[in-house]
């Protein structure tokens, strides 16, 4: 097969089959992959004169990628984070390309080694316990949508997980009645599975929700929170749809509670839960484990812990093995399963 035809066929296979099956179920993310490839192809055509019949593996060489990245920033005015995202999405396609054609594996290796500019991290606005409660209270519990939305928010806040983990949760990864301590198994940001034990109220909401939305015998591979535009359980609710619901409730809650931030979003529930655990005297090491941060310093920065607060937290850490100190942050047997039950989930 001609090289150009092989590449174009693999582009279609990547977008239509591989990415939806093995990378993500999010339509928005698939669209981002498609957009990044489209932008790169447009650049190849307009700046390099590459066409459908002349495109080759060499078109994805590192020199071209460097020029493209510079063009995105200087000509198109893309922000650093947008440029990095475009390059990362194209790199994932190149990894797929190399897996299909071993002779092209170097393309991904070269793209992966390219320097990325560091962009300033977006600051996550804090949210008080009163603000969280006010948002929860806006859901209309007389409607199925309202009951679903409350369950999603209570579950995310209670487990301090990312929204993607909740939205991609499947029935087979929920363990409520077959264990002594209810838990869910999620996929973290790095693609690794991990267990999240559920606070009592979060477990109660989830149990009631599954009974209502999935019936007596739920299908194991069904998404727990699914899109109403498809057959039940087939496709997860999109991240955009979830955030739109939160913004709606936030706007309503702000009329009653001045502590509700402007345009709240899903990640603020994760940030808020971690902050509230610290406020309730849960040890910073434990909070770091709950957030699944690889480094304690990441948790410190994430929660905007000041120098003085850091010293206080480190005193707790340094004294955690002192038998005279009460072990507020762990059980007698050293397990972690009850840590998230320290504060109430409203």
Automatic annotation (TrEMBL):
Q: Does the keyword DNA repair apply?
A: no
User: Which GO molecular-function terms appear in the entry?
Assistant: DNA binding
Return the InterPro entries for the record: DNA_brk_join_enz, Integrase-like_cat_sf, Integrase_catalytic, Integrase_recombinase_N, Integrase_SAM-like_N, Tyrosine_recombinase_XerCD
Q: Does the keyword rRNA-binding apply?
A: no
SUPFAM superfamilies, per the entry: DNA breaking-rejoining enzymes (SSF56349)
Keywords, A to Z, come to: DNA integration, DNA recombination, DNA-binding
What are the boundaries of the region Disordered?
Answer: 317-337
An example of a Gene Ontology BP annotation on this entry?
DNA integration
Superkingdom, natural source:
Bacteria
**Matching Pfam families:** Phage_int_SAM_1 (PF02899), Phage_integrase (PF00589)
Where in this chain does the record put each Tyr recombinase domain?
122-315
Name of protein: Site-specific recombinase XerD
């Amino acid at each position: 097969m001609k090289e150009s035809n092989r590449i174009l066929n693999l582009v279609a296979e990547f977008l239509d089959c591989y990415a939806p099956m093995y990378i993500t179920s999010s339509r928005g993310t698939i669209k981002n992959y498609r957009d990044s490839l489209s932008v790169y192809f447009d650049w190849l055509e307009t700046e390099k004169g590459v066409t459908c019949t002349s495109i080759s593996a060499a078109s994805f060489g590192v020199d071209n990628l460097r020029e493209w990245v510079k063009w995105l920033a200087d000509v198109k005015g893309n922000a650093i984070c947008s440029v990095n995202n475009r390059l990362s999405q194209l790199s994932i396609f190149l990894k797929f390309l190399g897996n299909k054609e071993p002779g092209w594996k170097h393309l991904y290796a070269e793209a992966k080694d390219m320097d990325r500019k560091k962009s300033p991290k977006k600051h996550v606005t804090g949210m008080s316990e009163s603000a969280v409660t006010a948002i929860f209270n806006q859901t209309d519990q007389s409607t199925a949508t309202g009951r679903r939305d409350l369950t999603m928010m209570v579950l995310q806040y209670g487990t301090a997980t990312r929204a993607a983990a909740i939205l991609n949760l499947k029935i087979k990864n929920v363990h409520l009645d077959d264990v002594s301590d209810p838990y869910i198994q999620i996929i973290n940001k790095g693609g690794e599975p991990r267990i999240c034990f559920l606070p009592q109220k979060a477990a109660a909401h989830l149990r009631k929700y599954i009974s209502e939305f999935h019936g007596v015998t739920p299908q194991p591979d069904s998404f727990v929170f699914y899109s109403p535009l498809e057959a039940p359980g087939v496709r997860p609710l999109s991240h955009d749809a979830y955030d739109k619901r939160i913004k709606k409730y936030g706007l309503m809650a702000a009329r009653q509670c001045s502590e509700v931030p402007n345009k709240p979003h899903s990640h603020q529930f994760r940030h808020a839960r971690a902050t509230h655990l610290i406020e309730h005297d849960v040890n910073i090491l434990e909070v770091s484990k709950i957030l699944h941060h690889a480094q304690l310093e990441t948790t410190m920065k994430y929660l905007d812990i000041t120098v003085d607060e850091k010293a206080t937290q480190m005193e707790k850490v340094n004294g955690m093995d002192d038998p005279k100190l009460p072990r507020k942050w762990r059980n007698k047997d050293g397990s972690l399963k009850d840590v998230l039950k320290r504060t109430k989930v409203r």
